[in-house]
């Protein structure tokens, strides 16, 4: 464990050390480029102007030589600033270190040339003091002792962190089992400890490494600040951490008012949604509005809630943290483009679902035929509709297909609950039509599940070249457990039995030539059994 932590610390230190030691030789830069003056690893001044024919690189080289010679000669050096026309000369003892001209001053950093010169002189005084500190054996030993103490504290904190993690992992199963048992709704446990333990252990591992990195960062900054040459690096590390913490704190404090407004909009939208639901439930009372009933109440409530929340999101968007940044705007444009390109079919399906709902084309429990599919409607959704066929299959049909296909509803025109059952037979012209109608009605009476009221009816739908077409239409009972396919099968079986009982063949004749005998029905055979002659005879129609 300790070897891993030491390895991580050494890698971080090596990366920082290599990055800070990287520098560019000032003599290789162009003559008109700004060059930084650094003495003992501390930045003093950034030269931008050419003075007396000396480019910034030459000025930096000359200043380094003068300052190094002055520091080598004596330790007690006074740093002063003398004005020269519109410039200022920085003196190190009795020697001229460098000159600060108006063209060297950054207007954003310093307000005047004198202020810039005083700042450079203060940094040079700090270099003189650190040079004296670096030459003092007593101060170096004290810095080494403080660095050693800081390292021992750092390693002790890492050991305590590892010990605390082991104890938490040991106690975690018991704590999770105890608290998850209390999170129940009735007898159903909301959270299973077996699934929560891996998540909690990963969160502890993440928190552990965050603390390790923070401790390493602080230890490294403290150790570097103990020695004169590495002190600028330690100060930059500490300043960077303080700047990041200040930036985060400022961002959090600045986002509180906007989050408060967004939260208020959220609660207002929540209250408006609940109020709209109650109003719509009252409006759905029978006799109030024809378009709003028990079937359209739920989708209307969903649409109203969606409209309220979309409006609330549009109102709260400017108050969200980061809403005005380019990254947030770009992400919003990307999401909108993805939705507009990929949700075309989804929007079409939703619109078709609304059309089916509000036009009441289909209702759950009705028997319908959609294209080549027929069955009982079990669910009418926003995007799809489910029907159960007579064979027990459940079909899921897109709503856009239903709106674009002819839909035949067998339950809409019936009297009361139920659905229509119909079948077609073709019998030759030599069979009395009254007999065919009577036999079809008899077959319908024998079929369980077909209602007697309303009574079944027979229609002659066509007089073809070789035979007429008879269509039997009846109403079935929806409460019967048998599906429509089974009911039709029983009806067809009874039709065959009745026709066989009365000696009538179910066949559609086709002639290739004239028959020897005419295919017609004599009047004395018009009411062949099971047809019955009416009590009040009427002239033939």
Task: Indicate the topology.
Layout: H1 2-21, E1 35-39, E2 42-47, H2 56-73, E3 79-84, E4 87-92, E5 95-100, H3 113-134, H4 137-182, E6 184-185, E7 188-189, H5 193-225, H6 231-283, H7 294-316, H8 326-342, H9 344-359, E8 367-370, E9 373-380, E10 384-388, E11 394-398, H10 399-403, E12 407-409, E13 419-426, H11 433-446, E14 457-463, E15 468-476, H12 484-501
Antiparallel strand pairs: 1-2, 3-4, 4-5, 6-7, 8-9, 8-12, 9-10, 10-11, 13-15, 14-15
Helix pairs in contact: 4-5, 5-6, 6-7, 11-12
Structure description:
By secondary structure, the chain is an alpha+beta fold. It contains 12 helices and 15 strands. The chain has a 5-stranded antiparallel β-sheet. A 3-stranded antiparallel β-sheet has the order 3-4-5. It is elongated. Strand 8 and strand 9 form a beta hairpin.
Short summary of the structure?
The chain is of the alpha+beta class. 53% of the residues lie in helices and 15% in strands.
């Amino acid at each position: 464990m300790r070897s891993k932590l030491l390895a991580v610390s050494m890698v971080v230190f090596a990366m920082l050390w290599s990055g800070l030691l990287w520098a560019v030789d000032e003599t290789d830069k162009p003559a008109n480029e700004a060059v930084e003056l650094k003495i003992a690893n501390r930045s003093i001044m950034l030269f931008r102007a050419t003075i007396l024919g000396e480019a910034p690189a030459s000025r930096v080289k000359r200043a380094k030589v003068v300052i190094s010679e002055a520091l080598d000669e004596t330790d007690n050096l006074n740093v002063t600033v003398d004005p020269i026309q519109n410039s200022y000369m920085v003196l190190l003892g009795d020697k001229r270190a460098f000159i600060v001209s108006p063209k060297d001053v950054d207007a954003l950093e310093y307000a005047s040339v004198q202020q810039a010169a005083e700042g450079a002189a203060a940094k040079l005084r700090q270099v003189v003091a650190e040079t004296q500190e670096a030459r003092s054996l007593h101060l170096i030993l004290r810095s080494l002792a403080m660095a050693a103490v800081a390292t021992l504290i750092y390693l002790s904190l890492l050991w305590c962190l590892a010990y605390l993690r082991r104890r938490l992992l040991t106690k975690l199963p018991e704590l999770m089992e105890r608290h998850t048992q209390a999170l129940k709704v009735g007898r159903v446990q909301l959270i299973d400890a077996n699934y929560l333990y891996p998540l909690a252990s990963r969160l502890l591992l993440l928190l552990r490494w965050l603390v390790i990195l923070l401790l390493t960062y602080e230890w490294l900054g403290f150790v570097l600040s103990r020695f004169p040459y590495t002190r600028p690096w330690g100060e930059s590390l500490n300043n960077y951490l303080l700047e990041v913490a200040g930036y985060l704190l400022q961002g959090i404090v600045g986002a509180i008012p906007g989050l408060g407004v967004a939260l208020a909009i959220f609660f207002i939208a929540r209250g408006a949604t609940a109020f709209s639901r109650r109003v719509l439930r009252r409006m759905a009372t029978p006799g109030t509005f024809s378009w709003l009933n028990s079937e359209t109440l739920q989708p209307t409530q969903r649409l109203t809630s969606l409209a309220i929340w979309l409006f609330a999101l549009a109102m709260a968007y400017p108050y969200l943290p980061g809403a005005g940044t380019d990254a947030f705007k770009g992400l919003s444009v990307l999401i909108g483009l993805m939705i507009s390109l990929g949700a075309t079919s989804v929007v079409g399906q939703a619109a078709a679902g609304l059309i089916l709902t509000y036009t009441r084309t289909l209702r759950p429990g009705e028997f319908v035929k959609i294209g080549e599919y027929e069955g009982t409607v079990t669910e009418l959704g926003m995007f799809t509709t489910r029907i159960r066929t007579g064979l027990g299959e459940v079909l899921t049909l897109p709503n856009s297909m239903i709106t674009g296909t002819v839909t035949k509803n067998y339950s809409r025109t019936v009297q009361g609950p139920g659905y229509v059952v119909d079948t077609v037979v073709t019998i030759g012209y030599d069979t009395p039509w009254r007999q065919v109608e009577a036999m079809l009605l008899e077959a319908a009476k024998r079929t369980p599940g077909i209602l007697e009221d309303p009574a079944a009816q027979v229609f002659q739908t066509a007089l073809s070249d070789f035979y007429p077409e008879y269509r039997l239409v009846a109403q079935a009972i929806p409460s019967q457990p048998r599906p429509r396919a089974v009911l039709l099968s029983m009806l067809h079986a009874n039709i065959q039995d009745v026709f066989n009982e009365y000696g009538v063949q179910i066949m559609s004749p086709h002639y290739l030539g004239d028959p020897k005998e005419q295919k017609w029905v004599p009047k004395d055979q018009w009411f062949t059994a099971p047809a019955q002659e009416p009590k009040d005879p009427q002239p033939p129609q």
